[in-house]
Structures are given as C-alpha cells and as structure tokens.
C-alpha cells in the first residue's frame, strides 16, 4: 500500500528512466525524413533506405484519416548505416520531391538548437551592419531618378496618416510636384 503521491513519484521516475534509456538506445540510428510525397507509405519508405543497412523500423506519420503528414522516421541497427543514409539520401529526388534527411532529435532539443542558431544569426547581422537602423535604408542602392522614402523621415498630416518627406520640401498635392 502506497500513498497516491508516493506512487505518482515512483511512476514518474520510472517513466523518465525509460525515456532516457530509449533516447540513448536510438541516439545516432534514428533518422527524420521530411518532404515525403503523399503516395509514400511505410513499405516504400523502407525500400528507399534498405540499401544502407538493416532497418529496424520505418514509419510514415499519418493524420487521423490515414493521410500522410509528409514526414517519417527510419531506424537503423548501427550508427554508421544511419550516417551513410543521411549523406546519400539528403536532397535526393523521390517522387519528384527532394528529401530532407537528418538524425532525429527530441522536439525540445531541436527548438533549443534553432533558437541558438537564430540568436547567432541575429547577432552577426547586427555586427556586420554599419548603417544606423540595421541597414534598412541605403540611398546608394537606389537607381538614378528614383527616391525611396526613409521610414525615419515620415511625417504626419492632419488626418494622422503618414506623409512622406521629399527632397526639396513640399508634399504631394502642393506646387513643386515631382513626376
């Protein structure tokens, strides 16, 4: 006999332990395959990857109606086989669609990786931008005879809408109009 909280804690501990064991077991052998054609099923997916080694499982993810969601997983016996499959099958055309193949990751790990990549890209863009305002406006990029309004120079008219400041003063509808 156990208290509910004790039983809950014990089951949670077992579940976490099982999850960690499963992650370690399939680390480096489970592949994520994206951009699958709707006609590809489990057997067709397995056939595409069987040249690279022994496959323990191949599964195309489907919705509640049984239609393909466009991605799936292929699990190999050895990490070397999975690595070979990734290098050979990534960007390979299957049913007129290029496959995306990578090692499978947990959702939390993938999100953390993408977030760090985003932050690095954002930091490098800021470092390489020598134009105030993040490089949104560069008059040298416009061709001769064209004027691109800088959003920082916008003014407001009486109705509250934006009124673009133009070279030479004046506003649209006033005397010295530009073509």
UniProtKB/TrEMBL annotation:
Gene3D superfamilies per UniProt: 3.30.70.330
Name of the protein in question: Polyadenylate binding protein
Cross-referenced SMART domains: RRM
The keyword RNA-binding belongs to this UniProt entry's keyword annotation: yes
Gene Ontology MF terms in the entry: RNA binding
SUPFAM superfamilies: RNA-binding domain, RBD
A Pfam entry, by short name: RRM_1
Residue ranges, annotated region (Disordered): 1-20, 157-179
Keywords, ordered alphabetically: RNA-binding
Gene name linked to the record: pab-1
Organism: Caenorhabditis remanei
């Amino acid at each position: 006999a156990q208290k509910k909280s004790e039983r809950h804690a014990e089951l949670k501990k077992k579940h976490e332990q099982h999850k960690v064991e499963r992650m370690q077991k399939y680390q480096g052998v489970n592949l994520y395959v994206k951009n699958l054609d709707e006609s590809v099923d489990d057997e067709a997916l397995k056939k595409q990857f069987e040249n690279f080694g022994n496959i323990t499982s191949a599964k195309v993810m489907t919705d509640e109606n049984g239609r393909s969601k466009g991605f799936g997983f292929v699990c190999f016996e050895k990490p070397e086989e999975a690595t070979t499959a990734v290098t050979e099958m990534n960007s390979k055309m299957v049913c007129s669609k290029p496959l995306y193949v990578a090692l499978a990751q947990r959702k939390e790990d993938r999100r953390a990786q993408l977030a760090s990549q985003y932050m690095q890209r954002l930091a490098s863009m800021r470092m390489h931008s020598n134009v105030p305002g993040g490089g949104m406006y560069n008059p040298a990029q416009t061709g001769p005879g064209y004027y691109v309004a800088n959003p920082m120079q916008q003014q407001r008219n009486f109705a509250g809408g934006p009124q673009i400041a133009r070279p030479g003063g004046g506003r649209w509808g006033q005397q010295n109009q530009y073509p």
